[in-house]
Amino acid sequence: MFRSRLKDSLKEAMKAKDSSRVSTLRLILAALKDRDIAARAKGNSDGIGEDEILEMLQKMVKQRQDSIALYTKGGRSDLVDKETAEIGIIEQFLPKQLDENEIGAAVGEVIGELEAGSIKDMGRVMGALKQRYAGRMDFGRASALVKGQLT
């Protein structure tokens, strides 16, 4: 699904002569190809799966957010604008992200279901969250909430 959407979007951007969109989509497809090659080396002839593509896209957004923070400190508004535009393009392929309240509700629900009572259960809770909410949740925030509720 993601692969075809990305390739179709690249074709559309090329027809529309949208150079920033073309370059961002090419970056995504190049990263995807690199991961596919690495997966083939490990014996997975089909390349990476949909959940790994989601993870890759989230990492790309996170990298750009980190870059924006650095460029802002350095006074490079031109680069901040470029990175912000790239985030917008990448996020079009990600499912809607859960907000803080929804993350809190999901964490509480999983802790209740697993009957987690101590910090020792954090790994189980995070594993369940990652399985259920892959691509839709910021697991850094979720981890802090889980830790707070289990201590």
Taken in chain order, the helices and strands follow as HHHHHHH
Distance between the termini: 40 Å
Q: What's the CATH first level of the largest domain?
A: Mainly Alpha
| Coarse morphology | globular
User: Whole-number average pLDDT?
Assistant: 89
Percent in helix:
over 70%
CATH superfamily of the largest domain: Uncharacterised protein YqeY/AIM41, N-terminal domain
Strand content: under 5%
Class derived from helix and strand content: mainly alpha
- What's the number of extended β-strand segments? 0
Largest sheet: none
Rg (C-alpha, Å): 18 Å
Do you know the CATH architecture of the largest domain? Orthogonal Bundle
Q: Which regions have little confidence, pLDDT < 50, spanning 5+ residues?
A: none
Structural domains: how many: 2
Task: Give a structural overview.
With 151 residues, the protein is mainly α. The chain has two domains: 2-91, Uncharacterised protein YqeY/AIM41, N-terminal domain (Hypothetical Protein Yqey, Chain: A, domain1); 100-150, Arc Repressor Mutant, subunit A (Orthogonal Bundle), CATH 1.10.10. The protein is built from seven helices and no strands. It has helices spanning 2-16, 19-41, 50-73, 77-91, 100-114, 122-132, 139-150. Helix 5 packs across helix 6 (122-132). The protein is globular and about 55 Å long.
Entry summary:
With 151 residues, the protein is an all-alpha fold. The chain has helices spanning 2-16, 19-41, 50-73, 77-91, 100-114, 122-132, 139-150.
